């Protein structure tokens, strides 16, 4: 009998920041990305010993749900609120970084579509063990995040927060809420 892939060990303690703290919320999204990528890694380990059992199918569903729904919203937040003020400020090094982050988003979406196909087959119980090509698709997707997140949290977010005043940050949080249907 296989053991379930437990999300509880991947959950953070404490409440997440709210929309009134948009940059903190964006960083909290990165923590959720890390948890989902950790779940993906655990899923891959689980498949080796248990195949696409119910725990594997559930984990594949959870990863797909996150990267289908929450991750695109997060990227949209950055494209609408973080990148434009940095581009407008025109500092060459920061502009180059923003352009790289924008390219990363395009690449993340493309690689997600490939990784998602693998996960959909796991969720359907059709893929008890990923092929080398499947593993490569999952590796390529997961591998995009470390440098990207580090650049956003270490440079882009602080620079954008410095450019955006309190009122602009409040409007940013309100728009993020509206787009998600939060009241």
Brief description of this entry?
By secondary structure, this protein is mainly α. The chain has six helices and no strands. The chain has helices at 22-50, 54-89, 92-123, 132-142, 145-163, 166-180.
Structural write-up:
The termini are far apart. The protein has a single domain (18-180), classed as nmb1532 protein domain like (Four Helix Bundle (Hemerythrin (Met), subunit A), Up-down Bundle). The longest helix is centred in the middle third of the chain and has 36 residues, at 54-89. It is elongated and about 50 Å long. It has 6 helices and no strands. The model is unreliable at 7-11 (pLDDT under 50). With 183 residues, it is mainly α.
Name the CATH class. Mainly Alpha
The whole-angstrom Rg is 18 Å
Please report the total strand number as a whole number. 0
Globular, elongated, flat, extended or rod-shaped: what is the shape? elongated
Count of discrete alpha- or pi-helical segments spanning 4 or more residues:
6
Provide tags for this entry:
mainly alpha, 183 residues, Four Helix Bundle (Hemerythrin (Met), subunit A)
Give the helices and strands, then pairings:
Blueprint: H1 22-50, H2 54-89, H3 92-123, H4 132-142, H5 145-163, H6 166-180
């Amino acid at each position: 009998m296989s053991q379930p892939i437990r999300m509880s060990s991947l959950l953070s303690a404490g409440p997440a920041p709210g929309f009134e703290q948009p940059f903190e919320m964006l960083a909290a999204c990165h923590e959720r990305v890390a948890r989902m990528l950790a779940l993906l890694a655990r899923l891959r380990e689980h498949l080796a010993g248990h195949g696409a059992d119910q725990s594997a199918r559930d984990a594949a569903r959870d990863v797909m749900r996150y990267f289908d729904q929450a991750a695109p919203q997060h990227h949209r937040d950055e494209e609408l609120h973080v990148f434009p003020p940095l581009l407008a400020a025109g500092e060459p090094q920061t502009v180059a970084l923003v352009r790289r982050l924008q390219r990363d988003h395009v690449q993340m979406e493309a690689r997600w579509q490939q990784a998602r196909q693998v996960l959909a087959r796991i969720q359907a119980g059709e893929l008890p063990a990923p092929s080398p090509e499947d593993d490569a698709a999952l590796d390529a997707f997961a591998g995009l995040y470390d440098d990207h997140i580090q650049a956003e949290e270490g440079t882009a977010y602080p620079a954008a927060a410095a450019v955006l005043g309190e009122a602009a940050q409040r409007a940013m949080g309100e728009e993020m809420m509206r787009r998600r249907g939060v009241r």
